[in-house]
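Lab notebook, bench 4. Still working through the backlog of constructs that have no structural model yet. Next entry is a single chain of 129 residues. Request: give me the structure tokens for it.
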Amino acid sequence: QLQLVQSGGGLVQPGGSLTLSCTGSGFSLETYAIGWFRQAPGKGREGVSCIADSDDSTHYRPSVKGRFTISRDKAKNMVTLEMNDLQFEDTAVYYCAAGSLQAIVGGMFTGGRQEYPFWGQGSQVTVSS
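Model written out:
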């Protein structure tokens, strides 16, 4: 079955760190741009970060820039989102998605499209003291 499988997430205190992983099962991530999105309780989905398929260039929403790092591990067919200095407002369910570069980058400003070829199952990130 072709799918994106997420791992990571959990509960962390403010200022702590977590890493989310997104692995392609049954297909290669190399030909896809990968985006991370999140949805907090009662709020709409928003784009967090993405990485291009062609040159691994990256994009971050301003509120996470300098704290989050997205990277691609081609050998593991995986994209990770390293999250440092987590804050209360980072609490959300995080989703990875695979799609065309244009669609994923556009999704950073619109919250993503349900029509992306692949979505991960979601990972809960809770920042609490």
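Notes after review: Residues 101-110 form the longest helix (10 residues). The mean pLDDT is 96. Flag for follow-up if needed.
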